[in-house]
Amino acid sequence: MAALLADGNPAVWTFRCCGQFFCEVSEAGLLKVGVTGGISSGKSVVGEMFAALGVAIIDADHIAHALMQPGETVYAEVVRHFGVGILNPDGTVNRSKLAEAAFGAPNRKAGSRVQELNRIVHPAVIEKQEEWMNEIGRKQPQGIAMVEAALIVEAGAAKRFDRLIMVTCQPEQRFQRWAKLRKVDQDAAAREVTRRMAAQLPDEEKIKLADYVIDNSGSLDNTHKQVQEVYEELRRQAEKS
Prior knowledge:
- By secondary structure, the protein is an alpha/beta fold.
- It has one domain (about 1-10, about 25-240): Rossmann fold, CATH 3.40.50.
- The chain contains 9 helices and 7 strands.
- A hairpin with a 5-residue loop joins strand 1 and strand 2 (about 10).
- Helix 3 packs antiparallel against helix 5 (about 115-140).
- The longest helix is centred in the middle third of the chain and has 26 residues, at about 115-140.
- The protein starts with a strand and ends with a helix.
- About 35% of the residues are buried.
């Protein structure tokens, strides 16, 4: 798996079997930045804007996806906990079935198992994030390494970053975006988004911990303006370190 560096070259690292996670010492000068936000807040859009400005960025969801491939330790643990019913015929994880098993099926009263899933996945994802950021630090002294992840605060990983960016938007926009992405009606989108948001901390709590808040409720031009302002501030901080 690879992620692009600011100079366009790929930073490549090797996935290993997951053991106890650790935190390597950050390369001097590297500014570690987390980008977080609730479901359908527009984190990916914001991340793409930062990438277009030359920031090295990786999506924690992509790391988790790679760790859930057959043969990985995380894959084996997830199947052991949630059963073979979450698998496709070819043995890969069906993410929709896993989400249903973790969050509970719609219109059912089964309890959520999100925390159980997070305890399996988060330590391994954090380890890979640290490896990647340290690789960026070795190749880009005084650079910016950015991680996009929905559950930075919930996973207790906020302290691993020098700066935290929170992306927000209005609930109605979350519903509209989910409906468009999943091709479902507005009511179904509202129910699913609300159900998933219940497994996350309220935006208000995460905003208290954030160094920057980007309101993605308006136009893309408005969001881009905020991203540009935050980027310029981060760039100044990285160059001073």
